[in-house]
Design goal:
- The chain has one domain: TIM Barrel (Alpha-Beta Barrel).
- It has 5 helices and 3 strands; from the N terminus they run E-H-H-E-H-E-H-H.
- The protein has a 3-stranded parallel sheet.
């Protein structure tokens, strides 16, 4: 079966690539290739495991669509999500 026939709309970049994306040229090339391929197929890209602003900035420069990781928050229970979002924490990190 070909990748284009899978019923998916998002590709996730594993944190094992994200971890060294700012220091390892191979990981940087892999993330860029994944993002380019996904966008060519009209898929969104999620990078998981982002822990530093340098990783965030690099992935943003590569046009990664969605960033997740400890840079923003540790996993939280559902009842703590609304207060987290209402205090604008993600926006403060991005600015």
């Amino acid at each position: 079966m070909y990748l284009k026939t899978f019923p998916i709309d998002t590709i996730k970049i594993d944190r094992s690539f994200v971890k060294d994306v700012t220091t390892d040229p191979d990981d940087r090339a892999i993330t860029q290739a994944i993002i380019s391929m996904a966008h060519s197929l009209k898929l969104e890209v999620v990078a998981e495991g982002v822990e530093t602003k340098d990783q965030l900035e690099l992935l943003k420069s590569q046009s990664c669509d969605i960033i997740q990781g400890y840079l923003f928050s540790k996993p939280v229970p559902v009842d703590e999500i609304a207060p987290f979002l209402l205090n604008d924490t993600p926006r403060k990190i991005l600015s």
